Amino acid sequence: MHDSTLPATEPTPGILQRPYLWVTVGTCALVFLAAFESLAVTTIMPLVSRELDGASLYALAFAGPLAAGVIGNVAAGNWSDRRGPTVPLYASVALFVVGLLIAGTAVSMPMLVVGRLVQGLGGGALTVALYVLVARIFPGALHPKIFAAFSAAWVIPSLVGPFAAGIVAQVFSWHWVFLGVVGLVIPALLMIAPVLKGMDRPGAAAPATPWAIGRLGWAALAAVAVLGLNLSAEVRIQGFPAATAVLAVAAVALALAAVRPLVPRGTLLAKRGLPSVILARGLASASFFGAEVYLPYLLIEQYGFSPTFAGLTLTGGALAWAAAAAVQGRLGDRLSHPGAVRTGAFMVLGAVILALATTALHWPAAVAIVGWIFAGGGMGLLYPRLSVMTLALSTKDNEGFNSSAMSISDSLGGALALATTGIVFTAFTTTAASFAGVFTFAALVGVAAAVVAPRVTSRAG
């Protein structure tokens, strides 16, 4: 039995003390694996794209997993609300491993994309299952610290992930960047297994929440729309230059229509409170990741960096993310939730603008690299606080739905941004203009995030 409540006369133990030690270690280990894979794949993808002749599917290799993750988000959220997070957690890890195996043995870009889709399905489900696990295990007072620990789990992979991925790809093969992670999954799962025993509702008990088949259908439709947006960039119809634009607009409209039943009412209209919390998460994700995946590409193509050293850009941002998350966790109530979200949104926006200026004005690469440290710091401030606010505004019956909505906003925001940047990147005739277009789009989304950030509370001011 897992009880997050403690007697009022006893001080609340820390996240690294009993009874929370193993669940902290286990969940952070799983976050660690996802972080390592994310950073490593971003570093090696230019090489993968070149070897497999897959430049046209470059953006899809990133957006595809995020789109598939939307389905995983909904399935795991619904499943967790019905029975608890245990079985969804095991299933998500299994899918994640299968995706790694497919990608790691890929001999063509389409096969690699398929592996990434399966990996994204498992990763999306894993995120929601972990958030529900946190809600069930940890008292509210520890939520800022455990979410700070999740961000801190990016420290080690940010230090060694991009650099190690570049070395492995250059000395051995990029295939091992995927396959090597598989061997780390089982130990991570074993660490978390003891705390999962007895957590789910007994099978004989009536489920608190019915299966939401309709929501799964909407999630699948949203994923298809995102994939369609990516594929629209590949449409080449002689004499019909507007075809790609028409298909892209239709795909975006379909994705937004499909996501409405998957998030709290008023999310797309930035209604104050939980809806804006969810929307801010998606916009920040879109701006940050829409720019981040093109930074190593920029450094390799325009500045002659090796893949190994281009990956160090991501290291700086990830370290700043973890450090800022740790700071906000220690500050607790001394830093208000809205204040952290506003500050973080403006830091991300400023960093994207610096990347744009570096590209457009041919500034030294160091400007964009240093700027990305501020982007990581901004995400480290706002991400944990948006997670805390989501759980604080949830009940046990809708923890899965709200955690799913937050993850969907995260994934869909990033996926739509990456799909759009893929279209923008291929729309220009010169590489320099392509990069400038990508960062311009990311900056516009960053402006939207900064506008929504003050609305995360129910009252103005």
Automatic annotation (TrEMBL):
Membrane spanning residue stretches: 20-45, 57-75, 87-107, 113-134, 146-168, 174-196, 216-233, 239-258, 278-297, 309-327, 339-357, 363-383, 404-428, 434-453
GO MF entries: transmembrane transporter activity
Membrane topology listed for this record: Multi-pass membrane protein
Identification of the protein by name: Major Facilitator Superfamily protein
Lineage: Bacteria, Bacillati, Actinomycetota, Actinomycetes, Micrococcales
Organism: Pseudarthrobacter equi
Keywords noted in UniProt: Membrane, Transmembrane, Transmembrane helix
Domain Major facilitator superfamily (MFS) profile: 23-461
Localization of this protein: Cell membrane
GO cellular component terms listed in the entry, alphabetical order: plasma membrane
InterPro entries hit by this protein: MFS (IPR011701), MFS_dom (IPR020846), MFS_trans_sf (IPR036259)
